[in-house]
Design a protein that fits this description.
By secondary structure, the chain is mainly α. The chain contains 16 helices and two strands. Strands 1-2 form a two-stranded antiparallel ribbon. It is globular, with a radius of gyration of 26 Å.
Length: 490
């Protein structure tokens, strides 16, 4: 009997390997299409639900189209804006990316449904005079144009990795459609000037507040001989400040649907929360710090849980406050089509709010990781203490801005705080290196100081440029969409 050749299956193995590589290649190519496919399915489901709700009433097609673009807008807000709340916690390794996505999705949805505003301004805070777009069809096309343009611009910003203000995008869209519909006189240019000023004020305020907190933590805790004893003294104070800040922040920005709280009362509530939480956290921090080594790495554990809580609170307040950016124009269109009159403010129907809340969560889970990584780790390196300073700065700056009556962007504040932490670290590191060089008689060469930059300048320039062009870009897009809609839709 002849022995069977050892390689009789060699040809079959080669063919199977080719098929296996083909399957792997197909999966690799198809993976980037999964998220857009799910997003498209969500938009289709929204269209079906909207068509069932509006039924056979006149102009049902307009409402369904507006619902589709509202869902698209909500997806983009979830992909771009929510990263600002979760990015620092993920960058500091206090949360995994999956954990951040889960917490943010829950808190954003809860904020939108439980505390989102019942009433929303249809002209985005008085940007356009309602009388100038009083005709029903002009108003509908203006709101539709603003919605489409803002969503397109935020989508583009997300693709290039730039966290931009969704509020400013909507404002730019409304302004562009208003100018095209009724001329430059229809726009409230004083309000636009205040919004333009906030481009500079928001990030500067956030950066300064964050840098001040980081300087305090370094001087009072990190550089102390007994770091654990210093942490036991000051970390409860910082946690109390966080609790007071977020209590005030939520009263101002996140509880409009439940109750309206004046700024003075909100501050008093915040002070009470700060005292109570600070006292409660003191024994908890003492117990948590037992057995920790007297070094900087040990301190990070004491800030991890407060950082996660602050990120969750920011997400809740964001869902309550910014869902109107997604569904405000949609609610306005539904109101005008249903009642036939243009109102300065309208009530948001529950089904419209559900579209906004679900869209935020889907956008965050499907497309949010890119911006979360950008804000959390690609601008500057964050640890729990630095990220905690960013979250504190975001809440405190919003409170200060509300007190001053300034229209600020939470996106600009948070990203500005990240930059503030990074630039402070640069300044502090160079100062210590210079002092060390002087004490040793060896000054640090300029090229070495340049190599030690702790903030990526490329990201800084990209983000700032995106901020500057957001309003004009959204306005130009909106004007173009408005012309097309009036031309082809009548």
């Amino acid at each position: 009997m002849k022995d069977q050749p050892v390689n009789q299956w060699k040809t079959l193995d080669k063919d199977l390997n080719r098929i296996s590589r083909l399957e792997q290649g197909t999966m690799y190519v198809g993976r980037p299409l999964v998220a857009p496919g799910i997003a498209l399915s969500f938009i289709v489901v929204v269209a079906i639900i909207a068509s069932v709700i509006v039924g056979q009433q006149p102009s049902a097609v307009i409402i369904v189209a507006a619902a589709v673009f509202g869902a698209y807008m909500a997806l983009n807000i979830g992909a771009n804006d929510v990263a600002n709340n979760m990015g620092p916690a993920v960058g500091a390794n206090a949360l995994t990316l999956g954990g951040a996505l889960l917490i943010a999705a829950i808190c954003e949805t809860a904020g939108a449904l439980l505390a989102g505003g019942d009433v929303v301004g249809t002209i985005s805070g008085g940007i356009v005079n309602p009388a100038s777009v009083a005709e029903d069809h002009i108003f509908v096309w203006a709101m539709m144009s603003a919605l489409i343009a803002a969503a397109l611009w935020i989508n583009l910003a997300t693709l290039i990795g730039a966290p931009v203000s969704t509020t400013h995008s909507v404002v730019g869209g409304v302004m562009g459609a208003g100018v095209t519909a009724a001329g430059f006189a229809a726009v409230n240019w004083a309000m636009m000037g205040r919004i333009a000023a906030s481009w500079v004020i928001s990030p500067l305020m956030g950066g300064i507040v964050a840098a001040l907190f980081l300087a305090f933590i370094k001087s009072q805790i990190i550089y102390r001989d007994d770091k654990i004893a210093a942490a036991r003294r000051w970390v409860p104070v910082l946690i109390g400040i966080m609790a007071g800040s977020f209590a005030t922040y939520l009263c101002i920005k996140g509880l409009n649907r439940l109750v309206t709280i004046p700024l003075g009362s909100a501050v008093l509530i915040g002070l009470a929360a700060a005292v109570v939480v600070g006292l409660i956290s003191r024994p908890l921090i003492r117990r948590q710090s037992e057995g920790l080594e007297n070094r900087k790495k040990s301190l990070k554990k004491l800030f991890a849980v407060p950082l996660v809580l602050s990120a969750a609170l920011l997400s809740f307040a964001h869902g309550a406050n910014d869902v109107a950016n997604a569904v405000g124009p949609l609610a306005a269109i539904v109101h005008v089509v249903g009642s036939g009159d243009v109102a300065a403010q309208v009530v948001i129907p529950l089904w419209v709010m559900l579209i906004g809340a679900a869209g935020l969560s889907f956008g965050l889970v499907l497309f949010g990781p890119k911006l979360i990584r950008m804000v959390g780790s690609q601008i500057t390196k964050l640890n729990p203490m630095r990220a905690y300073c960013v979250s504190l700065a975001a809440a405190i700056t919003v409170i200060i801005a509300s007190w001053l009556g300034l229209p600020v962007s939470s996106t600009h504040i948070t990203v500005g705080a990240v930059f503030g932490v990074g630039f402070y670290r640069e300044w502090h590191a160079e100062r210590r290196a210079r002092m060390l060089g002087i004490s040793k008689g060896k000054p640090v060469p300029p090229e070495e100081r340049s190599r030690r930059k702790l903030v990526r300048r490329a990201h800084f320039m990209t983000i700032v440029a995106a901020w500057v062009v957001t309003v004009p870009a959204a306005a130009l897009l909106s004007a173009l969409v408005f012309v097309l809609l009036r031309t082809f839709a009548g």
